[in-house]
Design goal:
Elements lengths: L2 E5 L3 H13 L3 E5 L2 H10 L4 E5 L7 H6 L3 H6 L1 E6 L4 H9 L4 E4 L4 H14 L1
InterPro entries: Bact_response_regulator, CheY-like_superfamily, Sig_transdc_resp-reg_receiver
Pfam families: Response_reg (PF00072)
Protein name: Response regulator
């Protein structure tokens, strides 16, 4: 089953996502900020990264900017954000984000998006 990295500074949201996706059989790892995410991406391989846009230390965009190209090539990135204006969406897609989901969101809708993304890979 796919391995997913959940990167968000909100612990409750990470727990909700973890519970939902683990129930579906996915292996979940978590990072509370950008630097932690980059470290985990150096240490392990993931199929999907669920990435918050606005975090302390490094934003989601800065995390993407710091991804090694070999990691980026094999990683599906789903941006999770409260920033849902068209200009924000355009910016994240220009940075190489594969999918975009606005907060707040239904955990089941997120699970469906993860399944869709993995099936399209």
């Amino acid at each position: 089953m796919a391995k997913i990295l959940v990167v968000d500074d909100e612990e409750i949201l990470r727990m909700l996502i973890r519970d939902t996706l683990e129930d579906m059989g996915y292996e979940i790892d978590e990072a509370e900020d950008g630097p932690s995410a980059l470290q985990k991406l150096e240490e392990a391989s993931y199929d999907v990264m669920l990435l918050d846009y606005m975090m302390p230390n490094l934003t989601g965009i800065e995390v993407i900017d710091n991804l090694p190209s070999n990691v980026r090539e094999q990683l599906i990135i789903i941006m999770l954000t409260a920033k849902s204006q068209e200009a924000d969406k355009q910016r994240v897609f220009e940075k190489g984000v594969d999918y975009f989901m606005s907060k707040p969101f239904s955990p089941m809708k997120l699970a469906e998006l993860v399944e869709e993304a993995l099936n399209a890979k």
